[in-house]
Description:
By secondary structure, this protein is of the alpha+beta class.
Amino acid sequence: MVLDINEIQKILPHRPPMLLVDRIIEIEPFKSATGIKNITMMEPQFRGHFPGHPIMPGVLILEAMAQVGGVAMLYPEEHRGKIALFGGMEHVKFKRPVVPGDQLVTKAEIVRVRGDFGLLHCDGYVDDKLVASADFKFALKKDEKD
């Protein structure tokens, strides 16, 4: 199953410039998802990170990866209207820089869920090379604005 940006925006509360997943290319709801983020020079972070040598900030790589996992968690109808909140990150590793022109492909797997709490593992790739990996602790919470 493929989800375009319009479908993703029905699931995640994020909006540009903080929506960091462009397409979901594979999903098994509440188990795993694979998504892509096309990195372009037009993104605001590259004005200052770093002029003349643009590199995607690690925190944004992690956020992009977590959002792919968020789609897997929030896709089931019974989870719509909830938000996934970070509870922590472990085993964070950056292997190589991500730069404009790259396509970040994230493979996210839900490792464990107990009630509204869980653990998500994500690996990020550019050109089939591992660029980052992390484990995310999360909590699902009803969106307070509803």
